[in-house]
Amino acid sequence: MAKNNKVKSTNDLDLQDRLVAINRVTKVTKGGRAFSFAAIVVVGNGDGIIGWGLGKANEVTAAIAKGVETAKKNLIKVPVHKGTIPHEVAAKFGGSRIFLKPASEGTGVKAGGAMRAVLESVGVRDVLAKSKGSSNPHNLVKATIAALGELRSPAQVAQNRAVSVEKVFNGK
Q1: Strands 49-57 and 32-44, how do they pair?
Q2: Which of 36, 67, 92, 109 qualifies as a FRET site for 141, CA 20 to 30 Å off?
Q3: What integer is the mean pLDDT of 102-113?
């Protein structure tokens, strides 16, 4: 089920960037070793907007800046319901598999590393998360954003079922 949840404009958004991982890459040349950096960055407004980007440059600050610019180009809207996600979701990217489950208020973000950065940037305050398989930060970020992209809000579920939002929650 493909849906369009892309964000059209970044002008009116107050986006905060967060560095997930930085990797030093070495290229061996005839003249010696050449070092460069790759940075994976997530940006979010803490209210349901999230994006990720990868920046590569010869200096750390330039790599982070490129990552932020790339992240601003592929923002998506995520339904956050009362500080948590509306329903369970699982996703896979590369060798990383993740599972996200809504949690009651006060639980906090029970996730590690790259997943925590993504979930906090999108504005989720209570969630249970599990990572299986590869712990590669690049694949974890991509899998987490893929999972968040699959979420449907209660209003979307009610509209698809042609029932009221209360009926979605109560089941009567």
Answers
A1: antiparallel
A2: 36
A3: 90
Contact (Cβ atoms closer than 8 angstroms) between residue 113 and residue 129: no
- Tokens 């929650």 map to which residue? 169
* Closest listed residue to residue 43, CA positions, set 18, 22, 65, 67: 18
Instruction: Give me the helices (H) in 14-107, please.
Output: 60-73
Sole residue written with tokens 């993740």: 98
The DSSP code for 43 is E
Cβ atoms of 155 and 136 within 8 Å: the answer is: no
DSSP bridge partners of 23: 38
Q: Are 20 and 44 a contacting pair, CB within 8 Å?
A: no
What is the rounded distance in angstroms from the CA atom of residue 76 to the CA atom of residue 6? 4
